[in-house]
Amino acid sequence: MSDTQWETYEVFHQARRGDPHEHVGSVHAPDPEMALQLARDQFARRLKCVSIWVARSRDITMTDYQDESFFAQSTDKSYRDPKAFDAPAKTESE
Amino acid sequence: MTVQIPQNVSQETLKRFILTLADDELVLGHRDSEWTGYGPILEEDIAFSNIAQDELGHSLVWFTLYHELGGDHPDSMGFAREWSDFTCCRFVAYPKGDFAYTVVRQFLFDVAEEERLKMLMDSAFPSVREIAEKLSREEAYHILHSQGLVERLGDATEESHQRMQQAVDAAFPQALGMFETIDGEKELVAARVFAGNDILKSEWLKRVIPVLEGATLKVPVRSANGSYVVTCAADEGGRKQNHTEHLRQLVADMQSVYRSIPGAKW
Amino acid sequence: MAEKTKEQLLAEFEARIARGEKVEPGDWMPDEYRKNLIRMIGQHAHSEIVGQLPEGKWIPYAPGFRRKLTLVAKVQDEAGHGQLLYRAAETLGKSREEMLDELLSGKAKYSNVFNYPTPSWADVGTIGWLVDTAAVINQSMLAQSSYGAYARAMKRICYEEAFHIKQGYDLVVALAKGTREQKQMAQDSINRWWYPTLMMSGPPDKMSDHTSLAIRWRIKTKTNDQVRQEYVDHIVPQIRALGLVVPDANCKFNEETGHYDFTPPDWDELKRVVNGDGPCNKERLEVRRRAHEEGRWVREALAAKRKTVARLPQARGGQAA
Q1: CA–CA separation, B105 and B99 (whole Å)
Q2: Contact C157, C179 (CB under 8 A)
Q3: Do B75 and C304 touch (CB under 8 A)?
Q4: Residues of C numbered 121-180 whose beta carbons fall under 8 angstroms of chain B's beta carbons: which are they?
């Protein structure tokens, strides 16, 4: 690792309790603890935040954009959608 | 604006005390802000700018209380007062030096501030209690950062160790000047506004020594009967307005635009 | 899966862009696209960090608490923007260290405008107001960039730029409404920054090498001349509303075109300044070089030391939900 080239950590930020953590960017840092602080200074200066996660970029496993078949939904799966059923939502009382 | 002040302590004594806090933060905040744009790495530039804004913000909070106690307005106090009237310790006015000096100074100052704020959360003066509670939350983050840097830089490489040791050699005697007795301190202690600089110093030593020594840095103290005894002289005088040339230059810079046109608003 | 030919890949790439879809890190992209983007994003990042210096120099002299705090926050944002942009460029395969080396050795370019001096406090206001207005017009357009990582960085940056413009404008308003000396300070500042800000949008379209590819692949969606005109139309009424003068006798509203006419800047000056021969190029780079050198021991030390004591809670494995 050369002197300016610290590893990168991906930063996930939770605005309020109950919200999902959102990916907001990444920081270079020498270790996870500093990554948290640097992420707080870089990504939570203005935005409200109750929790930050950092993960080493190299630990993130990701799909390949080129491999579109990974997400293929080529046969009819409309049975999973509530709109596919005709039965009325309410039944009338007798 | 009526501020409820405790019995048995004069408004002047209170003001003088608040002023030392305000002046320390303003001058250190100014030094910290000199790193913005010049930090050793982008991420530290951002981090240090946060700390600078916090210190300046703390200063403004204390100056505002000072104003409520009958003193001049914060901008007048910070930007139009003669440098010889400042009551900051000499420590905060020394030039920012290299990053090692800045980090060590920040750490030593942050711990003193946190301990002082803890004591002030028990103050008989309600306004001070409120402010102390608010400021201590930001202070916790400062210490996380500055202590973290001390621990990392103290023994990381040959060069970092040398620089950090030099920084401690310079800063430690200067830091002791933070605890110089202030005018009216006996009155403040008796009225339970503030528990006093001796106690503060001893709490401070208990915290900073283990961290510095843990980072393999030598400090001019020895242990005796479970407490620390300092073996160097303190660089004092600031509370009695006996300042160094550095403060004169700093204040001249800080006030140069503000005072450049009499009566102007900026 | 059959191997695709270069022609097929290019066709797919261009179809994606035509659909308005974003190109993401890891996608196949033509070399020219990658190179163009690295150059543009890199220049943008360099501009942010060099841009800290003209205003950062005034932090010790800022008059009053509010101005001082605001200026620290603004210059801090610029470091933050630089950080975001270097990260975006890194997704294209060039390291930040390599980019910084190019900046410090004088090989990389950055915005012309930061090579001019800031001799007066008023310049802090003018930069925030004029320079950042021009920047925002450019940047809002770049937030639509076809490259996903760049677009995302730009959106964050645009959000913070609104503050930059407002604080700069507020500063100049205080001067324009102040003493005669203050008003003159503001006017002097505008006189000095008018043409440099016109040059910020880059050389005129007819002289620009990179524009056509950048437009075709929606790296940018407006030409330099379009952005420049937008800036002029926006800023001229604001300047005049403060009782200040635009230092260009030809700057008049044209009823026919619906835009302001203006004297074009000296394009030779732009070329010289961008290629290293402006009033402050050497000085700015020297300052950055020194900061970089003096910080080397810090970076090395922090990289060498693995911090093993954790004072903060570890997120427990499998907690992501």
Answers
A1: 10
A2: no
A3: no
A4: 121, 171, 174-175, 178-179
* Category of C63 on φ-ψ map: left (φ > 0), alpha (ψ -120 to 50) or beta: beta
In chain A, which residue's Cα lies nearest the Cα of C81?
A42
pLDDT score of C175 more than 70: yes
Q: Any residues with CB less than 8 A from the CB of C113 and at least 6 apart, and which?
A: C51, C131, C193, C196, C197, C199, C200
Concatenating the DSSP letter of every residue in A1-49 gives --TT--EEEEEEEESSTTSPPEEEEEEEESSHHHHHHHHHHHHSSSS--
**3-class DSSP state for residue B101?**
helix
Range 299-318 of C in CB contact (< 8 A) with B: 299-302, 304-305, 307, 309, 311
pLDDT tens-place string over residues C80-135: 999 999 999 999 999 999 999 999 998 998 888 999 999 999 999 999 999 999 99
Whether residue B160 and residue C301 make contact (CB cut-off 8 A), yes or no, is yes
| pTM confidence score | 0.92
- Do residues C111 and C280 make contact, with C-beta atoms less than 8 angstroms apart? no
Supply φ then ψ for residue B247, to 5 degrees.
-65, -40
Distances (CA, A) of B76 to B93, B251, C82, C88: 19, 13, 36, 45
pLDDT digits (tens, 9 = 90+) for B144-161: 999 999 999 999 999 999
With 0-12 / 13-18 / 19 or more C-beta atoms within 10 angstroms meaning exposed / middle / buried, residue C200 is: buried
Q: With the C-alpha atoms ordered C144, C264, C125, C169, is the resulting torsion angle positive or negative?
A: negative
Rounded to whole angstroms, the Cα distance separating C122 from C175 reads 8
Q: To which residue do tokens 């996870």 refer?
A: A32
Where do we find the tokens 């800031």?
C118
**Across the interface, do C73 and B43 touch by the CB < 8 Å criterion?**
no
pLDDT band at C275 (very low <50, low <70, confident <90, very high): confident
Determine the Cα–Cα distance for residues C86 and B43; give it in Å rounded to an integer: 12
Kindly state the tokens that stand for C98: 């390599």
The model's confidence at residue A1, banded by pLDDT at 50, 70 and 90, is very low
**H-run or E-run covering C259:** strand C259-261
Number of neighbours of residue C49 by Cβ within 10 angstroms? 25
Residue among B42, B57, B79 whose CB faces C82 most closely = B42
> What sign has the CA pseudo-torsion B164, B165, B170, B171?
positive
- Residue ranges of alpha helices (H) inside chain C are 6-18, 31-56, 65-90, 96-104, 122-126, 132-142, 148-176, 180-199, 211-216, 224-241, 267-272, 281-294, 296-304
Q: How far is CA C319 from the centre of its chain?
A: 39
In DSSP terms, C196 is beta-bridged to none
State phi, psi for C205 to the nearest 5 degrees: -50, -40
The residue type found at B5 is I
φ, ψ for residue C259 (rounded to 5)?
Answer: -130, 170
DSSP code at position C23: B
